Amino acid sequence: METVGILGGTGPAGRGVALRLASAGFDVVIGSRDTSRAIDVAKSLHARLDGDIKGSSNEVAAVCDIVVVATPWDSAVATVTTLRAQLAGKIVISMVNALTREGRELLPLYPPRGSMAAQLAFALPESRVVGAFHHLPAAQMQDLDSGLAADVLIFSDHADALDHIVDIVNVMPGLRAVAAGSMSLASPIEAFTAVCISVNIRHKAHSYVKLAGLDK
Question: Which residue of 64, 91, 101, 178 pairs with 5 in a disulfide if CB–CB is 3.0 to 4.6 A?
Answer without folding.
Answer: 64
